[in-house]
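Hey, quick one: can you model this chain's 3D structure?
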Amino acid sequence: MALFSRRKKTDETPDETQTPPADAPDQATAEDAAPAEAVPQIGISVQAFRGVGAEAGPEVSLPDPNAAPAPARATAPKAASAPRPQTAQKRVLPLAPALPPAPTESVPGMKDNTLLRAALAEIEQGATNEQLIGVLRQMMQNHLYLRVHGDARAQLAEGKPLSIAVVRDGERSYMLAFSSAEAVRESVQRESEPSATSAIAQPVTAVLQQLIAGDFAGLILDNASGVHRAVFPVEVLTKALEQADPNMTIKTLLAAPREEDTMQLVGDALAKTKMWVAVNDGSGNGQVGIAEAQTADGRRFLQLFSHPLEIVALGRGDKPLPFEPDQLAKVLAGHDTLAGVIVDSAGPSIVVERAALGAVMVRAVDVSD
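Sure thing. Here's the predicted structure for all 369 residues.
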C-alpha cells in the first residue's frame, strides 16, 4: 500500500466498500498539493457500446483461397506493429504496437497499467466515442489502483471494509480508479486539507464487479489528469465485463513481456478460452465469412479477438461473433492452408503458428469422434 498525504475536498468523499485484499507495494509520499480541479462531464454514449456481438450465430466460413482476390481487409501480421485501419475522417481508436510496452513503475514498487496509461495519453479535449472505447479496451486487462481513505493495510488487517474514494455529482457517485500510483498521487495533490490516503492494486475484473455490485453511476479513470481522464457509465462497464473472459487469460499473456514460451502459452489457452471472430457479409450473397490476415508470402492467418471491443477498435464495420474452442478446432482442421491465428490485431497482438495450436487440434479429434 502506498500512503499519501492528502487534502479533503467537498465533492470527493469516502465510501466504505469492501475490496478483496491485494499485494502491498512499497510506501510512497505525495509532494506539495496542487489547486483542486473539478472533474468535467466527459461521458461515453451508452449507445456506443451496449455490448456487441451475438450470443450465437450462423455457420461461418473462410474465404475460398482459389477464388478471385478480394479487396484487402487487413494487413499482414507483423512483429513490431499492429494494423492501422484508416477512415476518411481519421477517427481511429487508440491502437497499440504488437509488442507490449516495457513495464514501468512511476512510483517504485508499484507497477503501472502501461497500456491504459498510453491509451489515456491519447485522449484530447472533447474525446470521441472511438477514443473512449479504445481506452476501455486497454483497461480490460491487468490491474487498476483504488484510492483508499486511511491505511488500506490496517483496514484489511482489522477486517474492516475499505473506505474507497468516490466523486459525488448530486445524487450520483462515481468510483475513482487509476492507471498508476503516480495518478493516485496527482489526485491527492489536488486536495486542500491534509489527511492520509493509500493506494491498493486490484485486478480490473474485481474493480468492475465491485462497482457493478455497488450503487455507483460509473467509473472515473485518472481524475486529476486533465483532458487525459475518462468517465464510463456503469451500463457500459456491465456489458464490457459480461463479454470478457473472467480470468483475462489471453489479455494477461498479451500484455506481458514476450517470453520464449508466450506463443505456446497462448496456443494452449485458446483450447479452453472463448474468443471472438470478426464476421462480415461483404460478398452480398448472405454467406458470412470470418476475417483473416495474409502475409506477403501468401500465408493465411485466422483473426481471433479476446473481446468484442478489439474488433470495434479496428473500425472496419465487422460484427463480433463468439467463437468457442471447438469451433476454432473445426476451422483449423477443415482448412489445412491456415498457417495459424493472429490474436488481437489492434495491439498488443501475437501470431500463433499452427505448430503451437496442438491443444486446439486435439479438440478437433474429440469433436469428430
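One thing worth noting: Residues 249-368 form a domain with the Trna Endonuclease; Chain: A, domain 1 fold (CATH 3.40.1350).
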